[in-house]
Design goal:
Layout (H helix, E strand, L loop, with lengths): L2 H13 L1 H38 L4 E6 L21 H7 L8 E9 L3 E5 L2 E5 L1 E5 L3 H4 L4 E4 L4 H5 L4 E4 L1 H8 L9 E4 L2 E9 L13 E5 H9 L7 E6 L5 H15 L10 E5 H44 L1 H9 L4 H30 L15 H25 L3 H6 L2
Parallel strand pairs: 5-10, 7-9
Antiparallel strand pairs: 1-11, 1-12, 2-5, 2-11, 3-4, 3-8, 6-9, 7-10, 8-9
Helix pairs in contact: 1-11, 2-9, 2-11, 2-12, 9-11, 9-12, 11-12
Length: 409
């Protein structure tokens, strides 16, 4: 791109400002759309991953459907109710049997829990009974007071750890909740700890929460049924989650004498696998959004080609004069390619600005997050599109015979 070609290109662009502006607008929309839509996909991916991580990245949830089916059992029948019991929890916590499991905590759920304090009433979004390892396994921390202890479980203590939303609903802001006694479904529990703010997973406020010793919950609210509907398991590290899952399945199937062909009554939700699946899905979604936006760039490129063909037709006599006085083919070719590329560079830079501005606004509830690669990618594709679609008109101009060009009216 010589300096002379650049000057001539700018002169040609400014000679038809409206037409050039519309061509630039097409490239601007294409580049801006690629940046914004990739940012939407990236923001959606980050939001989903954050929600899953809020539930614990090393966490596995073992749910008990209660009955085996789809194959024979070594003992009992398919209608025999199978429950996760204290022996199962102890086996999962046995490091010799499950070296990749850090802890396994039984979970007792209370369907509808209403908490009251001095006339204030709130429905607790999630009230569970569990043990001292539950908060760590579910990626929850206590930032005021203390967590549940082994003594609380052993002694069936009526104590509770509250989430910040539940505490605010009961006590209001500025009131120290620690040491206060609240009523949950009519049963007294003393507040011994407050959970650090955890946020939400999209549909559920993770701070509208309370956990008490499962022994006390069974004593007063649910009764001891001899089993647990769920066990929350924490793997030692995220890298051994799959190993931990295999150990869970082996231990439970072995303890309940389930054959390899039996449909297990236990389901294991692996948060790590869920995270990987979500990452793969959202990556595909982001690529699809980027591909859709790239179509606008293609349309913008066709606009560049169209405008350049018109330009060649309008400036046929100019081309003839230049060739007649000795301008080589390469000079004419370079002039029109330069003009096409300059149009796309201007459009690309404007599109980057539009994309950066557009990414500051929520789109369908998603906060876009700029993907660093999208800016040079969109700009590079825009320039490549301008070059590609500018070659044919430029080649057509360079191929004109001087005599034919000078005769053109």
């Amino acid at each position: 791109m010589s300096l002379d070609s650049f000057r001539i290109a700018l002169r040609g662009i400014t000679a038809n400002r409206l037409r050039s502006s519309l061509t630039v607008l097409g490239i601007l929309i294409g580049v801006g759309a690629v940046i914004v839509l990739v940012a939407v996909g990236n923001g959606s991916s980050i939001a989903v991953q954050q929600r899953i991580q809020n539930l614990g990245t090393n966490t596995l949830l073992v749910n008990n459907r209660g009955r085996a089916g789809g194959g024979a059992q070594r003992t009992g029948t398919q209608t025999t109710r199978i429950q996760i019991d204290n022996g199962d929890v102890a086996a999962l916590n046995d490091k010799s049997q499950a070296p990749d499991i850090a802890s396994a905590s039984p979970v007792v759920t209370v369907g509808a829990a209403t908490a009251t304090f001095n006339g204030a009433t709130t429905t607790v979004g999630q009230f569970v009974g569990s043990d001292a390892n539950y908060l760590t396994a579910s990626a929850r921390t206590v930032d005021a007071g203390r967590a549940l202890t082994i003594d609380d479980i052993t002694n069936h203590n009526h104590v509770v750890v509250l989430g910040r939303t539940t505490a605010a609903n009961l006590f209001g802001s500025g009131t120290d909740a620690l040491g206060k006694t609240i009523q949950i479904n009519g049963v007294s529990f003393q507040v011994v700890g407050l959970q650090a703010t955890k946020g939400s997973n999209g549909s559920q406020d993770l701070d509208d929460f309370a956990v008490a010793p499962y022994t006390a919950v069974q004593d007063t609210l649910t009764g001891a049924t001899g089993g647990y509907p769920q066990v929350i398991v924490e793997a030692r590290t995220a890298s051994v989650e799959n190993n931990a899952q295999a150990e869970i399945v082996t231990i439970l199937d072995s303890r309940h004498h389930l054959s390899a062909t039996a449909a297990s009554p236990f389901t294991v939700l692996n948060q790590g696998s869920l995270l990987q699946t979500s990452q793969s899905t959202t990556h595909t979604f982001t690529v699809l959004l980027g591909a859709v936006a790239a179509i606008s760039l293609l349309v913008g490129g066709i606009g560049v080609m169209n405008i350049m063909l018109v330009t060649v037709t309008e400036r046929t006599r100019e081309i003839g004069i230049r060739k007649a006085i000795g301008a080589p083919r390469s000079a004419v070719l370079g002039q029109f390619i330069t003009e096409a590329v300059v149009l796309t560079i201007i459009g690309g830079l404007a599109g980057i600005g539009a994309g950066l501005i557009g990414s500051h606004f929520k789109i369908v509830g998603v906060s876009p997050v700029i993907a660093g690669y999208s800016i040079p990618l969109a700009f590079g594709v825009a320039v490549a599109v301008g070059l590609f679609f500018g070659i044919y008109p430029a080649n057509r101009a360079a191929s004109l015979r001087p005599i034919d060009a000078l005769r053109h009216e």
